[in-house]
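FW: tagging you since you asked about this chain on Friday. Here's the raw sequence from the shared folder, copied in full. Didn't touch anything.
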Amino acid sequence: MRLDAVIFGGGATGLWTLDVLRRAGHSAVVLEAGELGAGQTVVSQGIIHGGLKYTLDGLLSPSARSLRDMPRHWRRCLAGEEAPDLSATRRRADFCHLWRTAELGSRLAMFGARRGLQTATRPLDAAARPAVLRSCPGSVARLEEQVIDPDSLLSALAGHHPDRVLGVDVTNGLEIETTAPGHVDRIRLIDPASGAPLDVLPERVILAAGGGNATLREQCGLDATLMQRRPLHMVLARGDLPVLNGHCVDGMHTRATITTTRDYADRVVWQVGGQIAERGVEMEPATLVRHAAAELRAILPGIELDGVEWTTYRVDRAEARTRGRHRPSGPHVSQDGDVITAWPTKLALVPVIADMILDRMPAPGENPTDPTGILSGWTRPQVAAPPWEEDLAWIAGDSAASI
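HL: got it, structure written out here
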């Protein structure tokens, strides 16, 4: 079966890239080893960043530049006004809040953020603030960054091309044959359900598998050390909590990022990231829960946490390697022969990286194989469950008192 592209990875990058390539006339499929979005997409907080939190030093950083047009583009896709049509994606919120602590450095950072990037922000007086932020001593602003449910994003993207998203067994059902490093001659697949073999002859192989890219690069005869991992230890809290989506700024750092969703039992669930998750990497879950509870009380004066349940989960941010293992300044796309390797760095940058990949594609093949009939009975991967729906150990009650 001849194809213009085989895309490894059924997260947001792989599925969005599939849509971009198909609309450009390319014959392509996505291969997923597990569940769609497992690893990074489905555990993300779902904020469509506009880059403002990366201007806390008052400078328009490369990270901020790469993000500044993303909220507008996503908003149009989520409204069904641009392709891909993401109107089926659930939106947790149409905007976020940005609030600061009382420290002088935090006040200066807030000013620098507004000055460094012309993101749509609106300072809120006390009456316009949500109740949970009315006791905050610092300023509060409304930030035009939408928050989405990543699992519904994956469903929306996969739903556009269901016959071209395939499940594979990377241990026993995948063989990549190369003629030289980065030059893929053939990919042999075994259907996990039927055991039937399938040989694919791709013009390009696109690695969009996040943390799986390192192993895939090795299988293509390439250097696996192009990738780095930066870990996070995220906190989940569920119970009688207010709806809140936003960032707390403390100096030139995001002290906490909080997003809100609901679980299968309609309980409010907070995802808590930012510095809490970065510093939590070195903490055990119980220690991190105590730390998170103390931080939330500090940045949300008067917050009631009695009866709240807590848990944590770890995730690695797979990215292109940088000197000092810092956050990359933008999306990464590189090409070695027929192999394109991609990491978006941020969920919001997925549309950018898909267009960057398209720019590296040759013209669509004149006589590609139509895989629809050949793949009609192939195993289809499901969308991964978000972490709060997994079998995690929840700590009951106020962690500061009960642990």
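FW: The first strand starts at residue 2 and ends at 8.
HL: agreed, and The radius of gyration is 22 Å.
FW: great, closing this out.
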